[in-house]
Design goal:
Distance between the termini of chain B: 40 Å
Distance between the termini of chain A: 43 Å
CATH architecture of the largest domain in chain A: 3-Layer(aba) Sandwich
CATH superfamily of chain B: Thiamin diphosphate (ThDP)-binding fold, Pyr/PP domains
Radius of gyration of chain B: 19 Å
Structural class of chain B: alpha/beta
Order of helices and strands of chain B: HHHEHHHEHEEEHEHEHHH
CATH class of the largest domain in chain A: Alpha Beta
Structural class of chain A: alpha/beta
Radius of gyration of chain A: 20 Å
Helix content of chain A: 25-40%
Strand order of the largest sheet of chain A: 3-2-4-5-7-6-12
Number of strands of chain B: 7
Largest interface: A-B, 49 and 49 residues
Number of helices of chain A: 12
CATH class of chain B: Alpha Beta
Number of domains of chain B: 1
Oligomer: heterodimer
Strand content of chain B: 5-15%
Strand order of the largest sheet of chain B: 1-2-3-7-6
Strand content of chain A: 15-25%
Largest sheet of chain B: 5 strands, parallel
Largest sheet of chain A: 7 strands, mixed
Number of domains of chain A: 2
CATH topology of chain B: Rossmann fold
């Protein structure tokens, strides 16, 4: 066990899986960085450096691609059907627009359309989220769109430990997995075991226990919820934080058990509010825990606008601990007295 | 004789010996009868959904597949029955599938537009125009990484040829030196729009130049021309020589889909092609006049194929529907 960043945890998961299984092949734009250039090879190791150093260890298992997401994301699907376990990188999830057909009409549907004969063990690693002034086409949190599609699994780690364990589980999984990495989280550190380990897809984690309000928080929003929880505790409000860790499959039972105990729900989701995880989880809880609810579920999300560029606007855009705490206080102040 | 022996070519035939010729004829005849029969049966209203027929283009599927092994892969188009039959998919299973039956090759969940059998290296017909070329790049990468001599062939129409996926995939295959062959089946129409308009009537094979790969045009009615061009490209790919583009100029005998009144076609267009360029007719003339096969051998295949298709349709009509619980199975491997 040692302290590692979220980025190092992902790099280590990739390296250990490439070592374990020579059919694990990594590719994407500049994943090596420098192929065919007169200068250094492995110059970049991914646009953020997540795959840096893998080329040196596994020169036959990592490739640069042309800037052609349709071709290489589709190639991941074809490779997965014919003996590889590809890990393709869709640099920013905002670029799904140029390759979505290969994801949702091809990879996601093979197993069903082909009567159960297909296995498509592929992972698409992709970066999401606002917070670095990357503006409207490089900052979105589009995981609800993927969660909507049957046949895809959607994984969204909130910390370095989960990032490593969930990525290894995703690579070993036989279904197509979309693995969402938050660009702001890359630098955060946590305890990460050196050896390979897996975290099962579909198991939420109770990040903090509490009796008064359940917060379901997704990805980077877990840390916002934790900060809110600390200030709320000072006021005598104890929140329970559920980190779903995977959005498809979604561990509904853990959410319901928590809400049955607290009677109040706040969902914190960086995505747009309509047809989001926040609205979906609120609806599920309303349908399945109605008799336990003491107040209406609350959603803390980005507004229904594209992510803005200016820091003064972007800081308002992303849910923050204060907004989360306010939502919790509102829900505590509402509804039936316990 | 087993059903697979009846259905068509299953072995790799780089040289056209007698067995190869018989297999090629059987493949083309099976596709033709399968499609002609679907045309008739569709008109009765018993076949659900969309059906796109390959009749007229059989020499292409047969010519390419003669060079492929079972573990080579192909990706197909809306018009995928011919590629499936030639790649060795079970003919009765295909017929059951097109009727939406539980015994179908995809358990009745795919239908004509998604007919597939990965165990046979058939990555599927594809309901998305231009959907297949990225997939074969992945197969090519897989073969390279695993160190096999497998190849992958994508079939695309002249309509699909204008999709960005096709350009992207040709470029990727070239950049990665993949053992992939891009086949453009130019039947002159993207649905109802003429290739003369949608690609300015150019030889699509010329686009190969832009991706640093060889590109050739062949007569898609001529099995021997297709077989020769396919052989050269596939051999090159197996030996590490990278991708190729082959444009097969051909005609389809029916509409874009069944039910298409085809008022956009020229007067007697199809009749003339049937009379002058039919691939089965040309093949028969060539092999009999050269003394390679005799009429009786070919007639025998015609008879066997007719019986197979009759049986397939009869059984498909009587076969049980999928059971309701199958609605939600096979979405994920793990649950």
């Amino acid at each position: 066990m040692s302290r590692k960043s979220y980025m190092q945890a992902i790099n280590e998961a990739l390296a250990q899986e490439m070592e374990r299984d020579p059919t694990v092949v990594v590719f994407g734009e500049d994943n090596v960085g420098g192929t065919g250039s007169p200068g250094e090879i492995d110059a970049w190791g991914g646009v953020m450096g997540v795959t840096k150093g893998l080329y040196g260890k596994f020169p036959n298992q990592i490739l640069d691609t042309p800037i052609s997401e349709s071709a290489f994301i589709g190639a991941a699907a074809g490779a997965a059907c014919s003996g590889l376990r590809p890990v393709a990188e869709l640099m920013f999830v905002d670029f799904m627009g140029v390759c979505f057909d290969q994801i949702f009409n091809q990879a996601a549907k093979f197993r069903y359309m082909f009567g159960g004969k297909a296995r498509t063990p592929m992972v698409i690693r992709t970066m999401y989220g606002a917070g670095i002034r990357a503006a409207s086409q490089h900052s979105q949190a589009l995981y609800p769109i993927f969660t909507h599609i049957p046949g895809l699994k959607v994984v969204i780690p909130s910390n370095p430990y989960d990032a490593k364990g969930l990525l290894i589980a995703s690579i070993r999984d036989d279904d197509p997995v979309i693995f969402f990495e938050n660009k702001v989280l890359y630098a955060i550190e946590g305890e990460v075991p050196d050896e390979p380990y897996t975290i099962p897809l579909g198991e939420a984690e109770i990040v903090r226990e509490g009796e008064d309000v359940t917060i379901v928080a997704i990805g980077r929003m877990v840390s916002m919820a934790e900060q809110a929880a600390a200030s709320l505790a000072d006021d005598g409000i104890e929140v329970e934080i559920v980190d779903p860790r995977t959005l498809s499959p979604l561990d509904e039972d853990t959410i319901y058990e928590s809400v049955e105990n607290t009677g109040r729900l706040v969902v914190v989701d960086e995505a747009y509010p309509r047809c989001s995880m926040a609205s979906d989880i609120s609806a599920l809880v309303a349908q399945n825990c109605f008799e336990h609810l003491k107040a209406a579920p609350k959603m803390v999300t980005a507004p229904h606008t594209p992510p803005p560029f200016s820091g003064s606007l972007e800081d308002l855009y992303v849910p923050d601990p204060e907004k989360v705490a306010n939502a919790v206080r509102e829900t505590v102040g509402q509804g039936v007295a316990s | 004789m087993t059903e697979s022996e009846v259905a068509g070519a299953r072995e790799r035939h780089e040289e056209l010996d007698k067995g190869a010729l018989l297999d090629a004829y059987r493949t083309m005849r099976t596709i033709r009868d399968f499609e002609e029969r679907l045309h008739t049966e569709f008109a009765t209203g018993e076949i659900p959904g969309f059906v796109h027929l390959y009749a007229g283009e059989e020499a292409i599927a047969a010519g390419f597949m003669a060079h492929l092994d079972g573990d080579d892969y192909v990706a197909s188009t809306h018009r995928g029955h011919g590629h499936s039959i030639a790649k060795g998919c079970d003919v009765k299973g295909m017929m059951f599938e097109i009727y939406g039956k539980d015994a179908g090759i995809c358990r009745g969940k795919g239908g004509s537009m998604h007919i597939a059998d990965l165990d046979k290296g058939m990555l599927g017909a594809n309901g998305i125009v231009g959907g297949g070329p990225p997939l074969v790049c992945g197969v090519g990468l897989s073969a390279k990484v695993r160190g096999t001599d497998q190849v992958a062939v994508s079939f695309t129409g002249d309509g699909g040829a204008n999709q960005g996926t096709v350009f992207e995939s040709m470029n990727l295959a070239s950049a990665w030196d993949l053992p992939v062959i891009f086949v453009i089946e130019n039947n002159g129409y993207a649905e109802a729009t003429a290739q003369a308009f949608s690609s300015k009537g150019i030889d699509i094979a010329k686009r190969a130049d832009g991706f640093s790969m060889p590109g050739v045009v062949v007569d898609g009615h001529d099995f021997f021309a297709v077989h020769e061009a396919a052989g050269e490209a596939i051999r090159r790919a197996r030996q590490g020589g990278g991708p190729s583009l082959i444009e097969c100029k051909v005609n389809r005998y029916y509409g874009h889909f069944e039910g298409d009144a085809q008022t956009y076609r020229g007067e007697n267009e199809v009749e003339n092609v049937r009379k002058e360029k039919d691939c089965l007719m040309l093949f028969r003339q060539r092999v009999t006049s050269a003394g390679l096969l005799d009429e009786a051998e070919l007639d025998k295949i015609d008879e066997e194929v007719k019986n197979l298709i009759d049986e397939a349709v009869r059984e498909a009509k009587e076969a049980p529907e999928p059971s309701p619980e199958n609605l939600t199975t096979d979405v994920y491997v793990s649950y």
